[in-house]
Amino acid sequence: EKQVFQLRAHMYQARSLFAADSSGLSDPFARVFFISQSQCTEVLNETLCPTWDQLLVFDNVELYGEAHEMRDDPPIIVIEIYDQDTVGKADFMGRTFAKPVVKMSDEHYCPPRFPPQLEYYQIYRGNSTAGDLLAAFELLQVPAGQSHPRPREG
């Protein structure tokens, strides 16, 4: 059974990134991958603790399966951190994984689950830690026949 969702990635900040440039700093941005879509935050120059404070919205995310399975075991979100270079391609700095908090269309958007709290996710590069990402992810079911999820007040 096909379900349509909207993913909201609240990308707040990262900390303790490693220095990718000779200056001892980096020009980091994050790329968020979910199912077949990806989006990037803006690039912040010369920092190891970027505060993006950016909301990435993925519309028309189609998932197949039972509604209760989606809620209990949603797909994994992959977040990769890169250093933007002035020449050449961006350098990979690390990766982390997250699971979104899921709201089905018949549930209320209200505490304690919504809005989701920011959480720290450990960033890894190979087997070593490469900083932390502070973010929140929510996956909202779009009611049949609608183009966007409706916020339902409790």
From TrEMBL:
Subcellular location: Membrane
Domain C2: 1-114
Any Pfam family matching the protein: C2
GO BP terms in the entry: plasma membrane organization; synaptic vesicle priming
PROSITE patterns: C2
Gene Ontology cellular-component annotations: presynaptic active zone membrane; synaptic vesicle membrane
Membrane-related topology note: Single-pass membrane protein
SUPFAM superfamilies: C2 domain (Calcium/lipid-binding domain, CaLB)
Alphabetized GO MF terms: AP-2 adaptor complex binding; calcium ion binding
InterPro entries per the UniProt record, alphabetical: C2_dom, C2_domain_sf, C2D_Ferlin, Ferlin
Keywords per UniProt: Membrane, Repeat, Transmembrane, Transmembrane helix
Protein name, entry field: OTOF protein
Organism in which the protein naturally occurs: Glareola pratincola (Collared pratincole)
